[in-house]
Design brief:
- This protein has 177 residues and is mainly α.
- It has two domains: 1-34, no CATH class; 43-174.
- The protein contains six helices and three strands; from the N terminus they run ββαβααααα.
- A three-stranded antiparallel beta sheet has the order 1-2-3.
- Strand 1 (2-7) and strand 2 (13-18) form a beta hairpin.
- The protein starts with a strand and ends with a helix.
C-alpha cells in the first residue's frame, strides 16, 4: 500500500492508502480497486498491531524467531567455517615463509616477492575479517540466548504501557503505522 492525499472540498487534505502497483503501473495491475481513508483504517490497524505486540506469547515467539534468524545468518556450520578460515591463516604464514626462502635463494625477484606477499596479505585480511565476523555473530547469539528470558520479561513489562502511551503522531514518527 502507498499513501495518497486528495484535497477535500474544505481545502483540507485527506489521506488515503491505495495499492502501490496501481498507483505506479495503472489500475489494471492490482486487484484492490478501493482506496482506504487513513483516518478510518489507521486506528483499526493500530489496535490489531498493538494487541499482537502486547501478547506475551507472541513476544516470546518473536524473540525466538529473531534468535533463529541470527543463527541462520551464520550460513551452514560455523565451527567448520571457522576451522577453514583458521587453516587459511596458517597456510598464508607457511606460504609467506616459502616465498621469502625462494627470494633469499635468488629464485624469485624482489618484485615477484612483493606481488606474492601483497596477495597473501589480502587473503590474510579476509580470513581475519571472516573469523571476527563469525566470532561476533556467535557472541550475539549466545548473548541473546543467555538474556532472552530477561529480555522477554522486560518487553512484556514495558510493551503495553509504552504502546498505549503513543499518540497517533508519534506512531507515524516511529514508523509504527
Amino acid at each position: 500500500m502507498a499513501t495518497n492525499n486528495v484535497p477535500s472540498r474544505g481545502k483540507k487534505l485527506l489521506f488515503y492508502y491505495r495499492c502501490a502497483k496501481r498507483l505506479g503501473e495503472g489500475k489494471d495491475v492490482c486487484s484492490l480497486r478501493k482506496n482506504y481513508r487513513a483516518d478510518k483504517v489507521e486506528p483499526q490497524i493500530w489496535e490489531l498491531v498493538s494487541s499482537i505486540m502486547k501478547d506475551p506469547e507472541q513476544l516470546r515467539d518473536d524473540l525466538e524467531r529473531m534468535i533463529e534468524q541470527e543463527r541462520k545468518g551464520l550460513h551452514g556450520d560455523p565451527d567448520r567455517e571457522a576451522k577453514v578460515w583458521a587453516e587459511k591463516l596458517i597456510e598464508t604464514d607457511r606460504m609467506r615463509s616459502g616465498y621469502q626462502d625462494l627470494a633469499v635463494k635468488g629464485l624469485m625477484t624482489p618484485e615477484e616477492l612483493e606481488g606474492k606477499l601483497r596477495k597473501l596479505e589480502e587473503t590474510r585480511k579476509t580470513a581475519k575479517h571472516e573469523l571476527e565476523t563469525l566470532r561476533s555473530r556467535r557472541e550475539r547469539i549466545e548473548e541473546l540466548e543467555r538474556d532472552k528470558e530477561a529480555l522477554w520479561e522486560s518487553y512484556v513489562g514495558m510493551a503495553p504501557e509504552a504502546l498505549d502511551s503513543l499518540l497517533p503522531e508519534k506512531r507515524h514518527q516511529e514508523g509504527l503505522t
